[in-house]
Design a protein that fits this description.
CATH architecture of the largest domain: 3-Layer(aba) Sandwich
Low-confidence stretches: 1-21
Organism: Klugiella xanthotipulae
CATH topology of the largest domain: Rossmann fold
Shape: elongated
Membrane topology: Multi-pass membrane protein
GO molecular function: ABC-type transporter activity; ATP binding; ATP hydrolysis activity
Order of helices and strands: HHHHHHHHHHEEEHEEHEHHHHEHEEE
Number of domains: 3
Protein name: ATP-binding cassette subfamily C protein CydC
CATH class of the largest domain: Alpha Beta
Bound molecules: adenosine-5'-triphosphate
Subcellular location: Cell membrane
């Protein structure tokens, strides 16, 4: 079969834009809810706060009317105490509710975010190449954040206001049945009207807001990442136009959402007024006939205002639910349920540290591989052996499969055939075990916007400053670091304050600190001044001196043959020549 042979179609399942099963969204929503024992205190406090607000208004009115009748002060005492208790209770319960419910939701949020990263990790980096970064960022940040609204602004308000509404209607019903009937009818009408207003005006916009935020983040990231190219080619205005359009669309959607909420709130206020007037009209007769005392009449007439204030949380919760569901949907489609074909599954079975000393570090036999989502094999039937002390050069034209081989060696991409590490088949090893043996220094090593120390220490947390300086000196950066004022010198965003060669040498130092027995260098001289390239290659190859480690250099720029112990030439994914 040729290098461009197709992968059997059954191998493919890497469509990350699939429609999620409803269970995915439901599962994400239920995982956004804190455990019951954390959720319950906030819910109880919220219900108590709402109930205090309703009782406060009713009892205050009762007190005012009863006081006007000038009874002995003793008769008013319980109401005076009750009003005070409800006023203080309302504020205290609400404060406690905010504290308890936000604490529970934020704790759950951190669990959610970690679980999202855990789902993302197995497919990174090879499985995420087709995903736009801005949109992914918006999913990881905004959509995960949005899920905190599920317990806070959807479930809790609906349950607590539901409890208070039922209690209020029942209490009013005991005093006056017609008043309770008016309440119930007005509440049902308010529910229907606010749901309708929301649906008709803002539902579609609410569902689109999360996706529009992702589009805006994408457009902004695109401009920021390529600001220099866009400026040089005079294309900045046009790209800014895309940002502007994404921003306009998002603003329009948010405005419609605000209009929908405004109309729903207006409808609720209108029906609250109608409920008050109707209660007044329907119960006035009972007062003149003496069936209902004036103080109770006053209380009942005031209660709708408080009850509808509690009810106002319901349409807001319905709107919030739509947006939360849209975010859950985006999260469910961000990561496929199954690993896409071409991405290796992590195995927890074996560990190379248990293996007795085996002379061969890496051995490939008939190894083939394809990129996730691709139908073409990028590597075919590759054989390779690497022992300690080896300095292997892999060469080949652009597109020959050199980088793919490097990615297979560190298990970013899966393989067919055999790939053994110290005699153990790599697919039986955990990714961490493989990456403990084989390290990769990429063409453009990523440098964190921090100091030199932090850029090295993540490879060896416990390394002392002396050890860091020793390694930096070994890779030829000792003097440079000293001139820059030591290990606290910053490297700038993406290494903007260091040259390509210095960045490669920092990556080299990292690899040394991590102590990989095999280090793969993918085009280490690609961003390096030609004058410095030879010295860098010589320093890299020198790492294998002493025979305790092997170095694999991938390069399509010439490397002196006598400096390496073996060469492997790739063309269209196949080994066409090998020496050593
Ligand atoms: N993410 C990807 N998805 C699908 N195909 C890919 C992907 N990356 C590379 N390929 C394809 O795999 C083949 C080998 O690419 P690879 O990057 O390994 O070549 P290379 O020898 O490293 O080239 P260069 O020297 O230009 O970096 C090419 O045909 C390329 O188009």
């Amino acid at each position: 079969m040729s290098a461009s042979a197709s992968v059997p179609s059954s191998d493919h399942g890497s469509d990350t834009s699939r429609r999620p099963a409803a269970a995915d969204v439901a599962g994400i929503l239920s995982s956004a809810l804190p455990p019951r024992k954390r959720f319950a205190p906030g819910l109880i406090l919220a219900a108590l706060g709402d109930f205090s607000a309703v009782v406060l208004l009713g009892l205050s009115m009762w007190l005012i009317v009863r006081a006007a009748e000038q009874p002995p002060i003793l008769y008013l005492n319980f109401a005076v105490v009750g009003v005070r208790a409800c006023a203080i209770g309302r504020a205290a319960f609400r404060y406690g509710d905010r504290l308890a419910s936000h604490d529970a939701a934020f704790r759950q949020l951190s669990t959610l975010r970690v679980s999202f990263y855990e789902r993302l990790l197995p497919i990174a980096p090879a499985g995420l190449r087709a995903t736009s970064r801005g949109d992914l960022l918006s999913r990881v940040v905004r959509d995960v954040d949005e899920l905190q609204n599920y317990p806070l602004r959807v479930v809790q308000p609906v349950i607590s206001s539901g409890i208070v509404l039922v209690l209020s209607v029942v209490t009013v019903g005991i005093i006056s049945f017609p008043a309770a009937l008016v309440f119930t009818v007005c509440l049902i009408l308010a529910s229907m009207a606010s749901v309708w207003a929301n649906r008709a005006i803002s539902a579609a916009s609410e569902r689109r807001i999360s996706a529009l935020r992702g589009r805006l983040a994408d457009a902004i990231l695109d401009v920021l990442a390529s600001l220099d190219v866009l400026t040089l080619f005079g294309a900045l205005e046009q790209r800014l136009g895309l940002v502007q359009r994404a921003d306009d669309d998002l603003r329009r959607a948010e405005r419609r959402r605000a209009i929908g909420s405004g109309v729903a709130a207006a409808v609720v206020s209108l029906l609250a007024g109608a409920a008050t007037v109707l209660t007044l009209v329907l119960t006035a007769g009972s007062v003149s006939s003496g069936a209902l005392g004036a103080p109770l009449f006053g209380a009942i007439v005031m209660v709708p205002a408080a009850v509808f204030e509690v009810f106002a949380a319901v349409p807001i919760a319905l709107a919030a639910r739509r947006q939360v569901v849209a975010s859950a949907y985006r999260l469910s489609t961000a990561v496929p349920d199954e690993l896409p074909s071409g991405i290796p599954a992590d195995s927890a079975d074996g560990d190379v540290s248990e293996v007795d000393e085996v002379n061969l570090l890496v051995e490939l036999a008939g190894l083939s591989a394809h990129h996730p989502g691709s139908t073409e094999y990028a590597l075919r039937e590759v054989n390779l052996r690497v022992a300690p002390g080896d300095r292997l050069l892999i060469e080949g034209a652009s597109g020959a499969g050199k980088t793919t081989l490097a990615q297979v060696l560190v298990r970013f991409i899966d393989y067919e055939g055999s790939y053994q590490i110290r005699g153990v088949e790599a697919r039986k090893l955990s990714h961490a075990a493989v990456r403990g043996v084989v390290g990769l220094c990429e063409q453009s090593p990523y440098l964190f916007d921090s100091d030199i120390r932090q850029n090295l220490k993540f490879a060896a947390e416990d390394a002392t400053d002396d050890r860091l300086m020793e390694v930096l000196t070994r890779v030829g950066l000792g003097e440079w670091v000293a001139d820059r004022g030591g290990l606290s010198a910053r490297v700038g965003e993406s290494g903007a304050l260091v040259s390509g060669g210095q960045a490669q040498r920092i990556a080299l130092a990292r690899a040394l600190l991590a102590g990989f027995p095999v280090i793969v260098f993918d085009e280490p001289t690609a961003n390096v001044d030609p004058d410095q390239a030879d010295a860098l290659i010589a320093d890299i190859l020198a790492l294998a001196e002493g025979g305790d480690r092997a170095v694999i250099i991938i390069s399509h720029t010439p490397v002196p043959r006598d400096a390496v112990s073996a060469t492997l030439r790739l063309a269209a994914g196949r080994v066409t020549a090998s020496t050593g």
